[in-house]
Amino acid sequence: MRYFITGTAGFIGFHLARRLLQEGHEVTGFDGLTPYYNVKLKEMRHAALSQFPAFRPVISMLEDRPALEAAVSAAKPDILIHLAAQAGVRYSLENPEAYIHSNVEGSWNIMEIARRVEVRHLMLASTSSIYGANATVPFHETDRADEPLTIYAATKKSMELMAHSYSHLHKIPTTAFRFFTVYGPWGRPDMALFKFTKNMLEGQPIEIYGEGNMSRDFTYIDDLIEAIVRLS
Ligand SMILES: NC(=O)c1ccc[n+]([C@@H]2O[C@H](COP(=O)([O-])OP(=O)(O)OC[C@H]3O[C@@H](n4cnc5c(N)ncnc54)[C@H](O)[C@@H]3O)[C@@H](O)[C@H]2O)c1
């Protein structure tokens, strides 16, 4: 099958693309290589994917609608998986604008294009952060998720809402995933696991949020990729 995946130079997109390429699918990978964290790591992920002849990288931003449209039209995908986003909860306090551009405008561009090319399945990465002020754990898909506590969560919830209306209006089969903190090789250097490891190796104290009273579950990358592949 032909897949169009956004965010292939990112952590999750890289793993997903590699798995699909290993299984013999064609993958077009769209990524703007944003400087949110070390771009060298993103380039290395794309270089690893480029070992597969069926991988076609496109370096561009989601907000550049003509570039996005041209890339999707050329790829003629059966399945479109939208993972590119401005991620990270903390950074959304510092630079909310990046979240509005990438996650709201960028995601809307994806939906506009998906309806024209009539993909068989549109899959979107949302986040467990959208449960926000919801205090009941464990979370369920049916729980209320309309009290986001950060702009990151608010933009992801906005994407889900837009997707709901596009799916209804244009009959696009759509799935939005709410990922729970994902970890594994080639992971994101802005996330706790990598920050803790780096500080430990350097003999530095680790920074702990929430006065050390916080606990959470993590998802291993291979388990997440298995779930996405089975649902696609
Ligand atoms: N990793 C997690 O634990 C986690 C948890 C919940 C949700 N998510 C979501 O999963 C998706 C993938 O996350 P990740 O951990 O791989 O993040 P990542 O930052 O490693 O990957 C995102 C990629 O998107 C690209 N990108 C960002 N904005 C762009 C834009 N405007 N145009 C083009 N490319 C752009 C970046 O260059 C990057 O390579 C994101 O949507 C994220 O919000 C991740």
Automatic annotation (TrEMBL):
Pfam families: Epimerase (PF01370)
Endpoints of the signal sequence: none
Superkingdom of source: Bacteria
Cross-referenced InterPro entries: Epimerase_deHydtase, NAD(P)-bd_dom_sf
UniProt keyword list: NAD
Domain NAD-dependent epimerase/dehydratase as annotated: residue spans: 4-231
Protein name: Nucleoside-diphosphate-sugar epimerase
